[in-house]
Amino acid sequence: MTAPAPTEAAGGDATEAPSPAPTEADVTAPSPSTPRSLTVIRDDGERVEPRVRGERLLRLGNRGFQALDALLAKGLPVELNPLAQTGAIANTSLITAIVSGIVLLVWYRTSVHEAHDSVVAMSQARFGAGFVRSLHRYSSDATLLFVLIHAVKLFFERRFGGARWLAWVTGLALLGLLWLDGWLGYWLVWDQRGQLVALGSGHVLDTLPIFADPLSRSFLVDDRLNSLLFFVVFFLHMLLPLAMGVALWLHITRLSRSWFLTKRVMTAWVLVSLSVVSLAFPADVVAAAKMAVRPETFSIDWWYLAPIGLTDRLGGGVLWAIVLGSGAVLFSVPWLLATGRARVATVIEARCNACQKCYHDCPYDAIQMVPRKDDKPFVSMASVDPSKCIGCGICAGSCDSAGIGLPWFDSVRQRHRIDELVDQTLGAEADVMLALVCNESAAAALTVDDHTSRSPELPGYKVVRVPCAGWIHPLTVERALRRGARGVLIVASGPGSCMYREGNRWTTERMAGQREPAFRGEKVDRERVRVLELYRTQRERLLSEAREFAASRPGPGGPRPGAVRRWVVGLGLAATFGLVTWAGTAAAYRTPGDPSPRLVVSFKHPGKAGENCREPSQAELDKLPKHMRQKQICERRRASVRLKVEVDGRELSTGTYEPRGIWGDGNSIAIERFALPPGAHQVKIELGDTMNPAEYNHSTSRQVTLKERHNTVVLFDKMTGFVWYE
Fold first, then answer.
1. What's the pLDDT score for residue 25?
2. 551-566: string of b/e by CB count within 10 Å (b at 16+)?
3. In this structure, what are the phi and psi dihedrals at residue 717, rounded to the nearest 5 degrees?
4. Is the peptide bond preceding residue 241 cis, with omega within 30 degrees of 0?
């Protein structure tokens, strides 16, 4: 059921529901003999959400993005500005990566021993499989690039507190899943990059006591590579997008009409740009992984492989401290920086006529229509979910009957305030211009006198701050014009930068008569209203446009960029983002550490089982009943395994390795690395697994020639004994 249009009263104004009694927090009651004064009404239009810690720094970062947005707006409409739709571009790129990845399965071989050869074969078909592989890589990189821009941009816009905490938390989870999927994807190529990814993963995971056999032992030599582990990595890489889909659904679940994908024209730009980059810079593949050879220098994809710089240099405990510490800080941002909750909208049941306009206009799905319980002749009424409401006031701009809105910025009270503002000014001046300004717009820095509502920067205007341009109901503008205001200037935030997503859009459409509630052009001249969408950095343009409007020279609010300019700017942006995406994959990486050869000795071996007998102490005997006291206490256990390494007759190491397992009855495991000078060396390795700590009952020796960046690996187990890999 829709609400009837406001009716005309005898005095020429539209009638409206009576205002509820104001609270002490909103109004200080004037004396009966004194006319209502504007100074007694607190102007809370400056803020909607609570302040956040570090707001100055955040606004500084936001100004940087808005300056760039304003620059791009000179050559591109908002629907083609990539910074205004970073999330949608990231989703489009992600879908491109998923589809191209599925197509790659036609050529890819899921085997640790054949994977690299299959990828090399793809690269040789530059315009076939090679193009699909390049598209897969660059679309994945573009996804991460735009996700990072999206996260940083919204962080500087302070869109993380209150009801937005879920979007922030799930967004970070999405970022983590996306990075992990790319990290595992490079593992599957099984080149030198994949080798470092596998070694880094093993280095981090071996710190946790969750594997009976350390992952690092699987990557010592090529012959011992774990094919099952490679297959698990492949399936994780394929299944993680499903988890990302769940996180993405949660990410946008509190949004109405989410801009999930780019529109047709922008989609074409994204796909063509990725295709051009893929053809111009085919994805490379470096040398195959050789576990006994330590890579030196090669190019890596810094978008996904930057953590290699840490896994190659830091210990597992430090890495986990970095991950957990940074994760705790980032996930806690909504509670660390936000200082409170937004003041949410409320419904005045007696005024609600079930028109559903607020329900349809709410950007955050915070309004539902529920069954009515009073005697009003309507089936339903609006209800606000406080856990979702941001407090933007867009619903107030939708409601003809003022049945929903912000108690601290009540629509009826503010209309009366604007009426008085116009009446008082007309009594003293020939005419009055009214400016309704959003505090996230170019008018944010205006100096406004609380007593006179005058701003020295906008001479001739009465300035009223509003929570969001979407709060402005067309009736508010009509009333001001019909009472004598010569013009009404509405200043909203820049195109695509509305703090509350759709406030600008709804206001523009309402004032143009394209959306209900609509400005009634047949009642009041629409040319007397100007809507400006200006970024905070466009203060000079605001002053210029305001002067023109006050001089009765209304214009279109800024010309739309011409086709030639759009093409030039669009091509420039596409080239810029394409080069940035490619550059992140072309930078060189040098592995750290000494290039000296290494001798690697590893075993997984159970010590022999036996009894360890000893005489009990007097204290132990006193605790036992007399009939249970024994001369000896014998414990059955496995012996520790001992290792001794000699090189050129010099003992390098002697170590003892306790049995693993809860009861100490498992294998003893060791991985020892020794840096040696290049050249020929006589190596002797001894191992003991008996109860006698001085006995070494397994031995091997060999003369080996060591080379720089090469590992000589000696493995031992009870089935094969010592096996040398040179």
1. 35
2. eeeeeeeeeebeeeee
3. -150, 165
4. no
The answer to whether residues 253 and 166 touch, using CB atoms and an 8 Å cutoff, is yes
Among residues 417, 411, 408, which one has the least CA distance to residue 36?
Answer: 417
The residue count of the chain comes to 726
d(CA 665, CA 638): 6
CA distance 76 to 70: 10
Distance CA 43, CA 202 (A): 59
Q: Domain 598-725 class? A: mainly beta
- Tell me, what's the pLDDT at 39? 30
Tokens 């229509």 belong to 369
User: CA 415, CA 521: separation in Å to the nearest integer?
Assistant: 20
| Nearest CA among 258, 267, 246 for reference residue 93 | 267
Q: How far apart (Å, rounded) are the C-alpha atoms in residues 488 and 557?
A: 14
Q: Is there a contact between 26 and 42 (Cβ–Cβ < 8 Å)?
A: yes
State phi, psi for 16 to the nearest 5 degrees: -150, 165
Write the burial class of residue 27 (CB in 10 Å: 0-12 exposed, 13-18 middle, 19+ buried): middle
- One-letter amino acid of 703: Q
Supply the DSSP string of 282-325, one letter for each residue: PPP--PBP-TTB---EEE--HHHHTTHHHHTTS-HHHHHHHHHH
| Run of H or E including 401 | none
Contacts of 487 (CB under 8 A, 6+ apart): 433, 434, 481, 528, 529, 530, 549, 550, 552, 554
49-72 burial, b at 16+ Cβ within 10 Å, e below that, comes to beebeeeeebbeebeebbeebbeb
The predicted-structure confidence for 122-140, as pLDDT tens digits, reads as follows 999 999 999 999 999 999 9
Q: Where are the domains of the chain?
A: 38-48+342-550, 55-289+312-336, 598-725
Q: Give the residue among 462, 456, 454 at the shortest CA–CA distance from 488.
A: 462
Per-residue pLDDT of 580-620, as tens digits, reads: 999 999 889 999 978 999 999 999 999 998 766 777 888 87
pTM as predicted: 0.86
CA distances, 358 to each of 81, 352, 373, 696 (Å): 29, 10, 19, 83
Q: Is residue 300 within 8 Å of 308, Cβ to Cβ?
A: yes
**613 pairs with which residues across the strands?**
634
Query: Are residues 468 and 392 in contact, defined by beta-carbon separation less than 8 angstroms?
Result: yes
Residues 6+ positions from 210 with CB-CB distance below 8 Å: none
Which helix (H) or strand (E) segment holds residue 558: the answer is none
Look-up of token digits 């159970």: 606
- What is the rounded CA–CA span in Å between residue 578 and residue 652? 53
The CATH code of the domain at 55-289+312-336 is: 1.20.810.10
Instruction: Report the alpha-carbon distance of residue 298 to residue 587 in Å, rounded.
Output: 8
Confidence of residue 40 (pLDDT cuts 50, 70, 90): very low
Instruction: Decide: residue 286, CB within 10 A, 0-12 exposed, 13-18 middle, 19+ buried.
Output: middle
Domain 38-48+342-550, architecture per CATH: 2-Layer Sandwich (3.30)
